[in-house]
Design brief:
Beta-Lactamase; Heat Shock Protein 90; five-stranded antiparallel sheet; five-stranded mixed sheet; 10 helices
């Protein structure tokens, strides 16, 4: 079992990754053969054991690629060889070649296992591409509504309260610097929290201090790596669509804590709320385009990175405020900060 897990790690970057030679070595030992070759549709990509002549190997691979099934051959030096196709996502993507009296059933089983790992690797790479594309989209959506209002507030304070205006201008610069940062696709919860507090201070000034803010974050989750720009878009949605429409004072809380292997982040407001059906449509991407763009983007990126069982959970009702919960693994392979 440990060997099979290690094989998955070897192939996590695909057949051309750094672990492919180690995968070939591990497979040769598992099958107890003289040589093992991993090939894609263009030819060999990794091998271990005795050298196999290019002419013999190409002829064997040609049989597999032409007919899509296993092929047995006797090589020029008399050695027996068997090649099994690698079917990734039901498509022929390569072959596994074993030399030295291989057992066909064992080679077929090994090929199926390799194909499964390659399929998972391709899915992870696709998720990463989706997450990166959605992040670029979110950066492009940094709200002109917020930018205009923040600058208007700062301009109004230049004469009335120049010290606060300077402080808010510095906050605004920090907010933009973080939002357009190119340091990577992930940040720590601590970084996300700092950016969120900066955003909320700017909004507090715009609300003429009618906005109450509570931030509680357990120390153990501060270093957890999460996708970049996860918390702030949820907070922005709470302010724009929950508190701007509410009369009187408004309150928003941001909290985070560990729950076993999970990091849980909750953003809650006491604003106008929404109908639960609207919340569901926003996450599905079918709701009004003027609302929840950040929510849908964050939800999609979380699912792309961690899998379909993760994503946002929204609890809301008309007149009852809104609570959005993010649950992510505290430790995930490949999810690290720069």
């Amino acid at each position: 079992m440990r060997q099979l897990h290690a094989l998955g790690l070897d192939l996590q970057d695909g057949p051309h990754g750094r672990g492919a030679p180690a995968a070939a070595r591990r497979l040769r030992r598992l099958l107890a053969v003289d040589a093992l070759v991993l090939a894609d549709l263009d030819g060999p990509v990794a091998a271990h054991g005795r050298r196999v002549g290019a002419e013999d190997l190409n002829a064997l691979l040609a049989q597999v690629f032409e007919y899509g099934g296993g092929a047995r051959a006797r090589l020029s030096d008399g050695a027996a060889a068997y090649a099994a196709p690698l079917m990734v996502a039901e498509e022929l993507s390569g072959a596994l070649v074993a030399v030295g009296d291989p057992v066909e059933a064992d080679v077929e089983a090994a090929a199926a296992l390799v194909a499964e790992h390659l399929d998972h690797a391709a899915l992870r790479r696709a998720r990463a591409r989706i997450a990166a594309a959605d992040l670029r989209s979110l950066r492009a959506q940094i709200s002109p509504h917020f930018v205009h209002n923040a600058l208007a507030v700062i301009a109004a304070l230049v004469r009335a309260d120049p010290d606060r205006a300077r402080h808010l201008l510095s906050d605004f610069a920090d907010y933009l610097r973080y939002g357009f940062s190119d340091k990577g696709d992930y940040a720590t919860v601590s970084d996300e929290l700092e950016a969120t507090q900066t955003y909320l201070e700017l909004q507090r000034a715009r609300f003429h201090d009618r906005l109450d803010i509570t931030v509680r974050m357990a120390p153990e989750v501060l270093p957890v790596a999460v996708p970049f720009l996860v918390v702030q878009p949820i907070v922005e949605n709470a302010v724009r669509h929950g508190l701007e429409r509410k009369e009187g004072r408004g309150h928003i809380s941001v909290s985070g804590y560990g729950e076993g292997p999970l990091c849980v982040i909750e953003i809650e407001d006491d604003g106008v709320g929404m109908h639960p059906d609207l919340a569901r449509s926003l996450l599905a991407g079918t709701g009004p385009q003027s609302r929840g763009v950040g929510l849908a983007n964050v939800d999609q990126r979380l699912r792309a990175v961690y899998g379909p069982e993760y994503g946002l959970v929204i609890e809301t009702a008309l007149g009852e405020g809104t609570k959005v919960t993010v649950r992510v693994p505290r430790f995930t392979r490949g999810v690290v900060t720069p």
